[in-house]
Amino acid sequence: MENALKLGDLKLYWLDGGRLGFDGGAMFGVVPKKVWQKRLPADDENFIDFIASPILVRTPETVVIIETGFGNKLTEKQKKIFRVTKEWNILKSLSETGLSREDVEHVILTHLDFDHAGGIAVLEDGEIALTFPNAKHHVQAKEWEDANNPNRRAAHSYWPINFEMLRDSEVLVLADGDKEIVPGISVIHSGGHHRGHQIVTLESNGEKAIHMGDVLPTHIHFNPLWVMGYDDHPIDVISLREKWEHKGIEEGAWFTFYHDPLLNSCKFDPDGNVIQKWPE
Ligand SMILES: [Zn+2]
To answer: What domain count does the chain have?
Structure first.
């Protein structure tokens, strides 16, 4: 894994978080299947194959991971429900960059749904341990509160087994709004997908990237109206996309994606056409 997207002094690598399937209708909300299936075809049962690939960011000083993948704690039944067709394998792909799990100093979680937070805790030799024991784990306080007191709908995706090891620990760092995590990397409280969702901005030597998490899960969701059925606050997702897409396009920023099966990152023109992509 020599290949990194270079952003000034930062290097971005997409780790192998495996693959899972989501219902096409849930991923594209009110958009008719006839329209979305031209961009991303579904299988016989209407599932689309997605990735869940954490982003490793090497800065000159430190190592940051954005999102952690769905992890290795799913039961066989859960693997069937969520159509896991490829296992979570981020520790191997991390080692291919020459790093170990102890080297990671910051984990940024846009939110705590299982497909983002499952890799916080790893099952090894029958025991559950923190995957990145030396890392500070950055979550919005609102998200932490909601994940620990979920409503009926959210209880399906907030699984305590993924984040309970963080509770009362020194490695949990709750953000109350916007915050710089390390020089050049900040979290912005966005809401939208969940009210405690945060997005991540990266900047080095004038080059920028925006990680919108599940507010912009793939490049195919560029149209602000293509909102997911999973979003708690769809109207907020629409205005967030309008705001950040406009800003990112003006600034020539890369948009990074966690779930996109076709590309990891791209730049858009104002009509939403991909004008540069990663991998090239
Ligand atoms: Zn997700």
So the answer is: 1
